[in-house]
Write a structure and sequence with these properties.
The complex is a heterodimer of chains A (371) and B (510). Chain A has 371 residues and is mostly helical. Chain A is built from 15 helices and no strands. Chain B has 17 helices and 20 strands. In chain B, β17, α15 and β18 form a beta-alpha-beta unit. Classes of the chains: A mainly alpha (371), B alpha/beta (510).
């Protein structure tokens, strides 16, 4: 069966999926007696209408870029890493330890140190399920999801019993020293007379996330390791024929994946909260799965999908704040987007392919040999 | 003049921009065996799928016994008296023969009466067509040839008058194939109409009354088998004259390259697949290993290729190689000068979603000339190398940026062969080099293998195509049940003797 050209595959299908998700969301909002058009306007204004709004949207997007890349890298090796949530929690622990116990002279050095700490802790948390998969064949989906719960329990224990400063009422670490505070967008973009991004949590980590996209792209498509990773992901039997070691690929892909998930903590723990609290990850690990699916496991796609989900997150929060649309309904809308863009990909793809070919039959007389 | 059992008029079918069948006309007379021959991708299977209701033709008409018939699904095909025996059997492995025959044709909710009826009918059919099968045998415990007979019985039980067989001899020994042909002959005598789809010229010549040739979706000719010859048919299939016989000078064996002593392989399920096999190959000779698929040949190739474990001793150029898999894998074998064209190019030899250039580097992606520096691969030079190899091996279309899956079977195989032969290996392992490959490409690949031999390289050829083994090998070993049943010289043996060895009969094990 001939395929649609690449541009249609990459852009048309997500757009149609999004439109469908929007239509269904509108119906849901209508059904509870609210005005969908007003809701859309509120979401757009709340997520994109000011530098403050953008500051939140980009903050969320930064989280999703990291977790999305984590899922994407593992997915290239056909590892379904559902443990982004737990790996990001552990990444937070790494960041907290680095920031609290090492006296950094400047935030830039602290940023490097925290990145390493976050990546190491995240990778370590992915290493155990990876090892079990590589050596024992325990399914990675089951083990990683279990490790999310273990991570949570571990964090509760550490925050309540070990890391909580004496006399504090909530399970959290002490605030990080002033010197390791990362520059926020407000610090970076405000001029003498105009203050931009006032009160918004977006910070320099956003650019780390963009750099991570570039690095992941280079890794996947330009290095020998990425080549082996993709080969293994496409066909394990062929990889064995070529002498690519399955154990190595499973371990390495999951370590990179865990490291990326862990690095999310630079944004939410170091950049925003400036201390480690429980529930710091807020489900971003799971959103990462949807982001990677929608972004077709391509770093650029992951970036765009992360922006979209950042918009939905921030827009949804505004909606809950200013309308009587309940918070749960926002989750429904987000779930619809995930459902249509991720899970129901083929539902949109097949009819679209059919329409495409009935319209395109004549111009495509010369087969689409050019890619 | 009698009415044809099947008449197809102007059948066309397109998949996207690809025209799989173009205005096909065909008449099959009742009580005859009609062959349909053509290369892979010529449209044979599409045409039969239309006849059996799997696809709907874009245009054209189907007449069964002179009556215009619509066949929207296989239920209608069965009702019209058409039975199909697929290349890959559709049997439930842990059911008995009887249960398989009844499956889908039960009379009611209760099984017992249907089974009783089927049992008596099977007995009748067995007598009528000499199709003896024990109705209570479990499918997974009977041989492939018998399983095929069950498929035929299934069709007959459903009152098929027209039987379509798709590449029926692919999995059979020569003796089993002969048996099948006898059954087909018997069916013909009883007035059944048979359509035989194959790419083997020999079968067409042996058993059919008429033959239609397909090429690139078109029916190029329909002739009486008695009035044609294999070279003529081959020419019709390919569209040019082809050399059916491989031209080669006698081998000049040199130094010992591969020594295999007492090699055994046990698979992950604990079944011993290769049982103490020993053989040698010298430089400049081709050792062919014949045998029915599944008698340990695959495991033999895999262990030599470095991705299956075994015990025993294997030496290459006098150096022992590790068989435990602890210190070796596909990479270390390549470093030793062993190249490997694997049996299954789609599962092993290629990554179908990778582009041609990525596949040319596959297995050799550590090669220094493919690296830009320690971190990055030099994709530009790999592409240039690919373009070069594609041109010399006549891969069409010669576009390194196309995905492997968008090439035809023959061109996919040429990519694998180009990659492995161009490495100038000391030992080339070749498994099923021409499976699913069109005649033109077969000719080319055979020439390349012989040319490599003439350069003084050792070649281990494993194939289930006896013709291929006979025409390429300098020595022939036959494998059965994990053992080598005997070694023969190609000019001092014949198909019959090899066939017996393949079936495990006679032959003193060496």
């Amino acid at each position: 069966m001939e395929k649609m050209p690449k541009w249609a595959d990459i852009f048309l299908i997500p757009v149609v999926s999004l439109v469908l998700a929007a239509i269904f969301s509108a119906i849901v909002i209508l059904a509870i007696g609210e005005d969908p058009w007003a809701a859309v306007k509120l979401m757009v204004k709340g997520a994109l209408g000011s530098t403050y709004a953008w500051g939140y949207t980009l903050y969320y997007a930064t989280n999703f870029v990291f977790t999305g890349l984590a899922v994407a890298v593992a997915f290239h090796a056909r590892m379904f890493n559902i443990g982004g949530e737990g790996q990001a929690m552990l990444g937070g622990l790494g960041v907290a330890l680095v920031c609290l116990y090492i006296p950094w002279p400047h935030w830039s050095l602290a940023l490097i140190g925290a990145s390493v700490g976050a990546a190491l802790f995240g990778a370590a948390w992915a290493a155990i399920p990876a090892f079990l998969q590589a050596k024992r064949g325990s399914h990675i989906v089951i083990t990683t999801i279990m490790f999310n719960f273990i991570a949570n329990a571990l964090l509760v224990y550490l925050l309540v019993n070990v890391l909580k400063p004496v006399g504090m009422m909530e399970p959290a670490t002490a605030k990080f020293p002033k010197l390791v505070q990362l520059p926020s967008f407000r610090d970076m973009f405000s001029t003498a007379d105009t203050i931009m991004f006032r009160g918004a949590p977006a910070n320099i980590t956003f650019f780390v996330a963009v750099a991570a996209c570039v690095v992941v792209w280079l890794l996947i498509w330009r290095t020998r390791l990425g080549y082996e990773l993709r080969a293994f992901g496409h066909s394990e039997s062929a990889a064995k024929y070529a002498g690519i070691k399955p154990t190595k690929i499973i371990m390495v892909s999951m370590l990179i994946s865990g490291a990326l998930a862990g690095m999310m903590a630079i944004n939410n723990v170091m950049g925003e909260a400036e201390r480690l609290v429980l529930n710091a990850v807020e489900g971003a690990g799971f959103i990462g799965i949807a982001v990677a699916l929608m972004g077709r496991s391509h770093p650029f796609g992951v970036f765009l999908a992360a922006l979209l989900f950042g918009f939905l997150y921030q827009g949804g929060a505004e909606l809950a704040l200013w309308t009587s649309i309940p918070r749960e309904m926002i989750v429904v809308i987000q779930a619809l987007v995930i459902l249509f863009t991720g899970a129901l990909d083929n539902m949109v793809r097949m009819p679209l392919e059919r329409i495409f070919f009935s319209l395109w039959r004549k111009p495509a007389a010369k087969p689409a040999a050019a890619e | 003049m009698t009415t044809p059992a099947i008449e197809l008029k102007g059948i066309s079918k397109a998949f996207g921009p690809v025209q799989a069948n173009k205005n096909i006309n065909i008449r099959v007379m009742p009580g005859t065996i009609h062959g349909i021959i053509g290369e892979n991708g010529a449209g044979k299977s599409t045409l039969m799928s239309i006849l059996y209701g799997f696809y709907k033709a874009d245009s054209g008409e189907i007449f069964i016994n002179g009556k215009k018939t619509e066949i929207p699904d296989s239920q209608h095909a069965i009702a019209a008296g058409i039975g199909m025996v697929f290349q890959h059997f559709k049997l439930v492995e842990n059911f008995t023969v009887l249960e398989n025959v009844v499956l889908g044709a039960e009379d009611g909710a209760m099984l017992r009466p249907s089974l009783a009826k089927a049992r008596s009918q099977l007995k009748q059919l067995a007598e009528e067509y000499e199709l003896n099968v024990n109705p209570d045998a479990v499918i997974e415990e009977i041989g492939v040839g018998t399983q095929q007979r069950v498929e035929i019985l299934k069709a007959l039980y459903r009152q098929a008058d027209i039987l379509i067989l798709d590449e029926p001899t692919g999995v059979l020994t020569p003796a089993e194939a002969d048996q099948l042909f006898r059954i087909l002959g018997r069916l013909k005598e009883e007035g059944k109409t048979i359509i035989l789809i194959t790419h083997k010229l020999r079968e067409i010549m042996e058993i059919t009354d008429t033959v239609s040739v397909m090429r690139r979706g078109e029916m190029t000719a329909t002739v009486n088998t008695a009035e044609t010859s294999p070279p003529h048919l081959a020419e019709l299939m390919v569209g040019r004259k082809v050399l059916l016989q491989v031209d080669k000078v006698p081998a000049k064996p040199g130094e010992m390259v591969l020594e295999v002593k007492n090699l055994s392989v046990t698979d992950s399920g604990g079944v011993q697949r290769v049982k103490g096999v020993s053989f040698n190959i010298r430089a400049g000779e081709i050792l062919g290993i014949a045998g029915v698929a599944g008698n340990g040949q695959s495991e033999l190739l895999e262990v030599l290729g470095g991705y299956e474990f075994g015990t025993g001793e294997v030496k290459i150029n006098g150096h022992s190689i590790d068989l435990t898999g602890r210190h070796s894998n596909g990479q270390t074998r390549r470093d030793r000068g062993i190249a490997h064209v694997p049996e299954d190019r789609q599962r092993e030899g290629l990554i179908m979603d990778f582009m041609a250039w990525e596949n040319i580097a596959f297995g050799y992606h550590h090669d220094p000339k493919y690296q830009k520096n320690r971190v990055f691969m030099d994709n530009v030079s790999i592409r240039a190398d690919t373009a070069d190899k594609m041109e010399r091996f006549d891969v069409r279309p010669p576009n390194p940026m196309l995905q492997a899956k968008s090439f035809s079977g023959g061109n996919q195989q040429k990519i694998v062969v180009a990659r492995e032969i161009e490495r100038n290996p000391d030992l080339l392992l070749v498994g099923q080099p021409t499976r699913g490959v069109d005649i033109g490409a077969i000719e080319f690949i055979h020439k390349q293998i012989v040319a490599l031999r003439d350069q003084g390289k050792a070649i281990l050829l494993i194939s289930v195509e006896l013709d291929e083994i006979m025409s390429l090998s300098d020595r022939i070993a036959v494998m059965f049940d994990g053992k080598i049943m005997g070694e023969r010289l190609p000019d001092k043996t014949n198909v019959k003797e090899l066939g017996l060895l393949m079936a495990g009969v006679a032959g003193e094990a060496v």
